[in-house]
Amino acid sequence: MALFTDGPISLDTDLVQYENGILALAAEEQIDLTGKMALAQTEIGTRLMALLLRQETRSPFTNWIDPQDMLRREIGMADVVVTGPLKQWHVLKTLALVYRDAYNNQLNDRYQKKWQEYSTLEQNAKEMIYLIGVGLVGYPLPVAGMPAVAEQPGTGPGGTFFFQTTWVNQLGQESVAGPLATAVTAPGVQITVTPTVAPKFATGWNVYAGNGPQVCTLQNAAPLGLSQGWTVPGSGLVTGRVPGNGQTPDYYVMNDRVLPRG
Fold it and tell me: In DSSP terms, which residues pair with 162 in a beta bridge?
């Protein structure tokens, strides 16, 4: 699962699953869906940060975190996992904001009813998060950046290549894969891939590659060292597994308790 700070929690397609006509409505009423999704995420982040600051939580990986301690303020939302219930809350809150704007634009009773409906659903989703808990990870790994690609003479097979990277921590957990880097080369050119600057808890990295943007698979048998590059072998790419979905929660914060995973 992605982390809260990796980027947008939801996409337009997630909104469409609840409202088939939401894209047409946004276009007709000149509502910026991207802006509304960002606003909803900011407001949710503020509420969750307040919850985390209120709780005395103990991570399985760190010392006690006092509600007033600067540690939580320093961490912010960087260790919060986007679980299914959290994503649902975000989608419903975004829809409530969209229909609020649509109603204020037109004073249309149909839009007002939709606004009220999604406001109620959003409130229920928020309460469910408080009941289920906010999922946190002990050693958070942000989404990887776009890797650097360098070319030099060698024994490369040539062709079009796409590369993605992920970070790995000391528990073997893996981040969400970053954006694609591309290279088009002739035979006899060797390609070397290196990651961006490693985040705090990264102990290694993985490289995914393919000849198309949808077919990138794992190329290294074990995580690579942070200062180690990876070169496309003369024999070409191998077919490994596809990138995973990121880290799952190690523990949950709910009300006045911390629940371990499982």
Answer: 182, 210
